[in-house]
Amino acid sequence: MMRNQKPGETYPSLTPFYVVDHPEGTVLIDTGTSYEMLQNPEEYGPYGAGYISEFAADEIEMNEDQKAANQVTDLGYDPDEIEYVVMTHLHLDHAGDIREFPDSEFIVQQDELEYAWWPADPIQQNLYVEGDFGVFHSSEYSVTAISGNYDVFGDGTIECIPTPGHSPGHQAVRVELEDAGTVILGADLAFTQEAYETELQPAFAWDTEAAIRSNRKIRNLERTEDAAVYLAHDRDHFEELPEPPESLV
Ligand SMILES: [Zn+2]
User: Fold this and answer.
1) Distance between Cα 232 and ligand 1 center (Å)
2) Residue 69 binned pLDDT confidence (cut-offs 50, 70, 90)
3) Separation of CA 96 and ligand 1 centre (Å)
4) Which cofactor does it need (predicted)?
5) Would you list the DSSP string of the chain?
6) Ligand 1 ion: Cβ-proximal residues, 5 Å cutoff
7) Separation of CA 64 and ligand 1 centre (Å)
8) CA of 15 to the centre of ligand 1 (A)
9) Would you kindly state where each structural domain of the chain is located, as residue ranges?
10) Mean pLDDT over all residues of the chain?
């Protein structure tokens, strides 16, 4: 989880995704891990998921109810009603259920789309599973490739903020809520609060220097906007969020 820290120790974590209700449409942020991939990694997509099947498939606990599309349905939304799906990045623990949202518009950084198809770094190659995002090539899926900050509804309530480093087109998402105020979903900007505060990155960060710059950018925003930052894989951050169907408002 952090370079040269606690070798041999494991850190059980989660792969969350988020639903944001907006008067003009419902937004999903990330799509979790693919249940189908875990059932049959070798057959999943043109390049399969050999790495996962070899090293991690047995470590990942997931049942079918935990698929993003099923959880969205359980919350009372029809997956076809999700207006936008914002992808923080396309690693396999965030991009798993893309194919279940053919009626949504996907918002992804251009740099991430380009790199996902041809990751030069052999470690990163294992984290991009074409079975997840290969459907973006199909005309049935709508993808908006963005470069830089992007205001989803044009009203300042949901904004994509580029935070490259963990991956080339990684982005955080700033959400303005009426009572909770400014919330920043930091995704994999850092894996844990400790890593966020100490600027430690995992060994497989795409670009460590860029990751540290992105980390500082979000810490600065956190300070100036008095924001609450939630990292995807920090267990305590996950516990702090209300349990659905309860939510921050
Ligand atoms: Zn992740």
Assistant:
1) 7
2) very high
3) 11
4) Zn(2+)
5) --TTSSTT---------EEEEETTEEEEE-----HHHHH-GGGSSTTTTHHIIIIIGGG----GGGSHHHHHHHTT--GGGEEEEE-S--STTTSTTGGG-TTSEEEEEHHHHHHHHS--SHHHHTT--HHHHGGGGSTTSEEEEE-S-EESSSSSSEEEEE-TTSSTT-EEEEEEETTTEEEEEEETSSSSHHHHHHT---TT-S-HHHHHHHHHHHHHHHHHTT-EEEETT-HHHHHHSPPTTS---
6) 93, 188
7) 20
8) 7
9) 18-240
10) 93
State yes or no: pLDDT of 48 exceeds 70: no
Give the class (CATH, top level) of 18-240.
alpha beta
Instruction: Find where tokens 């820290």 sit.
Output: 5
What value does the mean pLDDT take over residues 60-74? 96
